[in-house]
């Protein structure tokens, strides 16, 4: 089974806590993507599906992107980062949640920094880990629990929120806050659609 893809027009889902949702009020209206394009919402029925989405994103990254991840424990944030690592030709086996060390670094065709802000309690703690030092050059930065570091995040970023839908399925909502991220996510969407068609063809053969 592949990921089920659809445009987000109306939602009947329960209202979610602001603690794990992207802070859209902070986005500059002029920098948001057209409503016809985003948000992009899909449903993942397994960690493998979530990883494939991450892989599609990783394949089109050019360097310097920030990916802000939101969602509760067990929603699939680390699985998504593992897929991004695959798409960047880094070892997926090395990708684990960096909750206790806060930051992990992986090397692929671009450097990937995996950040987990779950244990961050104050702006001073956020500053002490040196997060903003990664927001330059060719480094791709993927940040779990990004809501705890909004004040430090670049204005132009990809935002991905993952929510529990059922025991094994997740709703994944992707959005952007700037033109560079919009371009990258559009490329990722095409890459994902192509990979989904190839996966269907392989399973039906």
Structural features, described:
The protein has 205 residues and is an alpha/beta fold. The protein has one domain (38-204): 3-Layer(aba) Sandwich (Rossmann fold). The protein has helices spanning 47-60, 77-87, 123-128, 179-204, and strands at 4-7, 40-44, 66-70, 103-107, 111-116, 140-144, 158-164, 170-176. Strand 4 (103-107) and strand 5 (111-116) form a beta hairpin. Helix 1 packs across helix 2 and helix 1 (47-60) crosses helix 4 (179-204).
Topology:
Layout: E1 4-7, E2 40-44, H1 47-60, E3 66-70, H2 77-87, E4 103-107, E5 111-116, H3 123-128, E6 140-144, E7 158-164, E8 170-176, H4 179-204
Parallel strand pairs: 3-6, 3-7, 5-6
Antiparallel strand pairs: 1-2, 2-8, 4-5, 7-8
Helix pairs in contact: 1-2, 1-4
Distance between the termini: 14 Å
Taking strands numbered 1, 2, ... along the chain, how are they ordered across the largest sheet?
1-2-8-7-3-6-5-4
CATH fold-level label? Rossmann fold
Mean pLDDT: 82
H/E element sequence: EEHEHEEHEEEH
Strand content: 15-25%
Tell me the structural class: alpha/beta
The CATH fourth-level homologous superfamily:
P-loop containing nucleotide triphosphate hydrolases
Helix content percent band: 25-40%
Shape: globular
Helical segment count: 4
Overview in brief:
The protein is α/β, with parallel strands linked by helices and 205 residues long.
């Amino acid at each position: 089974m592949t990921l089920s893809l659809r445009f987000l027009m109306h939602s009947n889902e329960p209202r979610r806590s602001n603690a794990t949702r992207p802070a859209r009020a902070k986005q500059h209206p002029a920098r948001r993507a057209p409503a016809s394009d985003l948000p992009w919402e899909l449903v993942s029925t397994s960690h493998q599906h979530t990883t494939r989405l991450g892989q599609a994103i990783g394949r089109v990254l050019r360097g310097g992107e920030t990916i802000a991840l939101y969602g509760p424990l067990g929603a699939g944030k680390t699985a998504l980062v593992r897929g991004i690592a695959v798409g960047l030709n880094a070892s997926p086996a090395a990708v684990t949640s960096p909750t206790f060390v806060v930051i992990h670094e992986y090397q692929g065709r671009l450097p990937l920094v995996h950040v987990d802000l779950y244990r961050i309690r104050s702006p001073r703690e956020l500053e002490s880990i040196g997060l903003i030092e990664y927001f330059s050059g060719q480094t791709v930065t993927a940040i779990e629990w990004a809501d705890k570091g909004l004040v430090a995040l670049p204005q132009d970023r990809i935002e991905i929120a993952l929510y529990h839908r059922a025991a094994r399925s997740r709703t994944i909502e992707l959005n952007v806050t700037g033109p560079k991220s919009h371009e990258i996510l559009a490329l990722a969407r095409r890459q994902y659609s192509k990979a989904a068609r190839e996966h269907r063809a392989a399973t039906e053969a």
